[in-house]
Amino acid sequence: MRSPLAPGVRFCSSFSRDSWYRSFTLFLTFLSYTAYHLSRKPISIVKNELHRNCSMVIRPADLNTTDNETWCDWAPFDQDNYKTLYGMLDNSFLVAYAIGMFFSGIFGERLPLRYYLSCGMLLSGLFTSLFGLGYYWNIHSIWYYAFIQAMNGLVQTTGWPSVVTCVGNWFGKGKRGFIMGVWNSHTSVGNILGSLIAGAFVSTAWGLSFIVPGLIITFTGVLCFFFLVESQFDQSSFSLCRKAQPSRKSPTHYIEVTSSTSSHATERSEEDHTQAISFCGALSIPGVVEFSLCLLFAKLVSYTFLYWLPLYISNVAHFDAKAAGDMSTLFDVGGILGGIAAGVVSDYSGGRATTCCAMLLLAAPMLFLYNYVGQTSIYLNTLSIAVMLLVCGGLVNGPYALITTAVSADLGTHESLQGNSRALSTVTAIIDGTGSIGAAIGPLLAGLISPTGWNNVFYMLISADVLACLFLSRLMYKEVRGWCSRT
């Protein structure tokens, strides 16, 4: 007696080929941008190792030195200006990233995304590894590390416009907020994995904290080159080419397949020759300027936490480098939950701007409370830091995640474009490029302000949250007025 089809096979066959391509593209782009963020995180973990309190470190017996204060530090970060040098490294990456992002979207609209993304990942793996090789090559020049950071920031601009365009090509607006909210957790997952990988090597050989993430993003770039399907047109072209292969079918069947292939080729040709939108044309899309300026301040807060949170925890809670890095991952865990929550709420309510404003308004007092509890709590210090980090991570990264994913995709396919689908990468690059200016300013300000006290750093972050909310006030008013008119 013949056995029934296996349940797993029945389940797999219940999905169409289009569904499989869509799911695989979502997974592969998730993996790709996880690797991007994984390679950015090590610098924030290694900072605690480059400049330490040498009086609390056991000196090796065979070490001959008369410098009791800086013998365990890595030059040139062994001087009192080490925070300024940290800021220089951060801004070498972030300024190059912000400048390159405005041009990246223009290239992304005109080049094959698979080649563009794969090449960017391979180069990013190279420069990330070169930073770590400075440890083994015994390089102590700040200009070497600053140059590597700047080049890495430039090539990493290939990532975001490419992956958002791929996902936008496969998914419509219906559940875009929820799907992209879940998908955007790659940012936090990458930060968490980057912290854990870098933390595993930071105390023994900090060069591996960069080399291992560099190898991971290189391998992921190879996967993208061989398996990424940019859009449904590419999948459909592959399917039609298979149908058009010579076979023993009737001449009528061959004519039908040839006719279908020709029709699809004409459709794809029209798609390819649609004029890509200009930079000024993308700026004129309603909502692009407001969300871009909002993201500038939202990303300022997020990236200040990304680069300075482990150092803040180490100074305030007196954790070592590995423990501070592990604790900082809770901020990213909260960011995953916040991004998903923002997507679900905005899908249900239809108010992207209102959702962002609500979370930004809640984030401001929570940042104040986190700093107050972190610096005054004695007996519940570790527990309070963990809980507050989760809450702050959700409220800070929720609007940031929503704007860079669902909002960018919505604006890139706005009705004012009249069906022109070649604006998504440019719009995404403008929004994220403007946000990257804030990402560059935030860590720089933190480096300048932190010597005056951490309280002043948090006042700066709270002010940025309020300003981000103000830039969305007009759009929020428009959404609320629309709800009132319907009810």
UniProtKB/TrEMBL annotation:
Compartment(s) of residence: Endoplasmic reticulum membrane
Recorded superkingdom: Eukaryota
Keyword set includes GTP-binding: no
All copies of domain Major facilitator superfamily (MFS) profile, residue ranges: 25-481
Keywords linked to the UniProt accession: Antiport, Endoplasmic reticulum, Glycoprotein, Membrane, Sugar transport, Transmembrane, Transmembrane helix, Transport
Main location: endoplasmic reticulum
Parts of the chain that traverse the membrane: 20-38, 91-108, 115-137, 183-202, 208-229, 288-309, 329-346, 353-372, 378-402, 423-445, 457-477
UniProt cross-references to SUPFAM superfamilies, sorted A to Z: MFS general substrate transporter
Presence of the UniProt keyword Endoplasmic reticulum in the record: yes
Entry's Gene Ontology cellular component terms: endoplasmic reticulum membrane
Biological processes per GO annotation: phosphate ion transmembrane transport
Record field: catalytic activity: D-glucose 6-phosphate(in) + phosphate(out) = D-glucose 6-phosphate(out) + phosphate(in)
Molecular function in Gene Ontology: glucose 6-phosphate:phosphate antiporter activity
Its membrane topology: Multi-pass membrane protein
Family of the protein in this entry: Belongs to the major facilitator superfamily. Organophosphate:Pi antiporter (OPA) (TC 2.A.1.4) family.
Protein known as: Glucose-6-phosphate exchanger SLC37A2
